[in-house]
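Dear H.,

Thanks for agreeing to be a second pair of eyes. The structure we're designing against is below in token form, covering all 409 positions.
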């Protein structure tokens, strides 16, 4: 494709660059925020009759070559082909009201569907990315996955308001040089059609299909992919169909029964703990090195030497992993319980977690590890709204260091 003002402008606009204004000689474009290169702008020459037009055009192209780390001819080829690629790989959906007497859809129903569909796709993107490329990333897989999502946003490529049919796709040409991972670009080129095949077109009423899904994805992976999908399609106010590019239905997406949902995304029991059980939350002095400042907490509690209160539910604000802390915007309520056989139980209704172990140290470690795994899989603030970003906090001590509760009384 020939290097001209129009071809450069088309490329920049197709890749999310913003026109910040113009003067007699140049149009000024700044990169999208997700590229994280503040202060950069590209001046595109306007006047082909200007004597320095060719030099200015080549100067602009060299800036883009440095940013995208590829030859300008390849960039312009992608600019000419990205739209057809997006159209080819797009997911086309039609929503229609369940009420035959009312052909309109509420805005809240449409936005909720789109939000949950997008969340499901992001979950699939992160899970598949981790499976395929974790071995090539030495550290901070979460940061790389977050960047991938920012560069792989679903975009509307077509919309029909009258029937509320729409096409969504992603532009795989954005950020092609960001990762440098073997096979990454080829995978991204087809990840949206694979999502449609692996997730949207599944027959959730079929037992064998469900078993295949359970074999392929573990519980946490199924939660981030299928939980938002079921929220999107299990709405009595509208029906959903996948269509072709002309919006002719090709597959009706049926609602999924509660039993099937539970098979794929198990719910944790929310039974209340035994009313006869009583637990103690204690506040212990901690030395600057992190050691307990008292030898026998149990005796100190008995003698009234420490603060103590009777609780059945314990709020926690942070959990730790080495020098990292996972902090919550609001405390998570954790229920302490025990089985008739004497096993310890930790249960969080908010995070849908329940773990048990013969020792308190074992149950707290399992609980801690599972929360971290949810965070690592879902990311900062996704789905679990009370998660906050990680930070390096060494001085704070979590309640897990207090030791097992005394259940003898």
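And this is the sequence the design step returned. I haven't edited it by hand at all.
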């Amino acid at each position: 494709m020939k290097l001209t003002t129009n071809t450069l402008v088309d490329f920049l606009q197709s890749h999310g660059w913003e026109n910040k204004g113009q003067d007699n000689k140049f149009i000024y474009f700044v990169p999208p925020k997700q590229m994280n290169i503040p202060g950069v702008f590209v001046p595109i020459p306007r006047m082909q009759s200007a004597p320095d037009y060719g030099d200015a055009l080549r100067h602009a192209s060299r800036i883009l070559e440095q940013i995208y780390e590829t030859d300008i001819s390849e960039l312009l080829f992608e600019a000419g082909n990205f739209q057809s690629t997006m159209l080819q790989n797009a997911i086309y959906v039609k929503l229609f009201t369940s009420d035959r007497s009312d052909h309109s859809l509420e805005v809240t129903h449409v936005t909720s569907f789109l939000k949950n569909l997008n969340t499901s796709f992001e979950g699939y993107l992160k899970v598949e990315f981790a499976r395929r490329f974790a071995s090539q990333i030495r550290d901070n897989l979460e940061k790389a996955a977050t960047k991938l999502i920012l560069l792989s946003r679903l975009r509307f490529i077509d919309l029909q308001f009258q029937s509320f049919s729409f096409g969504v796709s992603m532009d795989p040409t954005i950020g092609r040089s960001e990762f440098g991972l073997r096979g990454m670009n080829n995978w991204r080129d087809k990840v949206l059609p694979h999502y449609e095949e692996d997730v949207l077109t599944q027959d959730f009423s079929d037992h064998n299909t469900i078993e295949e899904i359970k074999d392929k994805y573990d519980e946490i992976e199924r939660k981030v992919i299928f939980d938002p999908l079921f929220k999107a399609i299990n709405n009595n106010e509208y029906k959903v169909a996948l269509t072709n590019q002309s919006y002719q239905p090709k597959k009706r997406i049926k609602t999924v029964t509660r039993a099937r949902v539970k098979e794929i995304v198990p719910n944790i029991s929310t039974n209340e703990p035994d009313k006869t059980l009583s637990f103690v939350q204690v506040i212990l002095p901690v030395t600057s090195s992190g050691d307990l400042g008292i030898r026998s907490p149990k005796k100190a509690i008995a003698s009234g030497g420490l603060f103590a209160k009777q609780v059945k539910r314990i709020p926690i604000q942070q959990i730790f992993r080495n020098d990292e802390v996972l902090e919550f915007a609001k405390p998570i309520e954790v229920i302490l319980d025990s089985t008739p056989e004497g096993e310890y139980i930790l249960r969080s209704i908010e995070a849908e977690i329940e773990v048990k172990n013969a020792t308190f140290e074992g149950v707290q470690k399992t609980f801690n590890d599972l929360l971290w795994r949810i965070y690592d899989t879902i990311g900062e603030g996704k789905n679990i709204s009370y998660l906050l970003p990680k930070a390096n906090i060494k001085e704070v001590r979590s309640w897990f260091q207090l030791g097992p509760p005394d259940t003898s009384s």
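Two observations from my side: The mean pLDDT is 75. The chain has three domains: 5-82, 90-264, 279-402.

Warmly,
E.
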